[in-house]
Design goal:
There is one protein chain. By secondary structure, the protein is mainly alpha-helical. Helix content is 69%, strand content 4%. It has helices at residues 5-28, 35-58, 68-85, 96-114, 117-149, and strands at residues 87-89, 92-94. Strand 1 (87-89) and strand 2 (92-94) form a beta hairpin. Helix 2 packs parallel to helix 4. It is elongated, with a radius of gyration of 19 Å.
Length: 171
Amino acid sequence: MEITETTALIRIGVSLVLGLSIGIERERHKHQAGVRTFTLVCIGSTLAMLVSIYICQQNLNLLNGDPGRIAAQVLTGVGFIGAGLIMQNKDGISGLTTAATVFTTAIIGLAAGTGMLLVATAVTVIVLAVLMLSAVKKYEKTRQTNKISGKKEDSRKEEEPICEEGWRDDD
């Protein structure tokens, strides 16, 4: 399928919705990467894939026209972002789930950019389900700990903000 401006805008629009949905879920649970980060990663990856396909489409006589090259560079760049999200502290390591979610969101964006809108949407639903299950698991663990220690249900500790959204990731 040829990449037209209309096709590109539809794919970016789908990517926007998918990135927003993941970002809202992460921000709702006060993790360090939220709506802006996930939305930008998703639409940026989609645009990179669209540009990659478009270049090959417009320059049919390119000897080394491989749309996969830009996609590979997207993943490399997102790997650096993910590495910056992982933190070691006195309680262990945090940020792994956020880093993995940013990486997966980039791939969702690449899929949307290639036109695999149904697949990108299905993977977004799977990601949201996994994140929600982990939030339920964390809630149950906290509830059990509070029950044993005799703390009230809503006793939560204040955490120091460490990122642009102002929240610390507790993966």
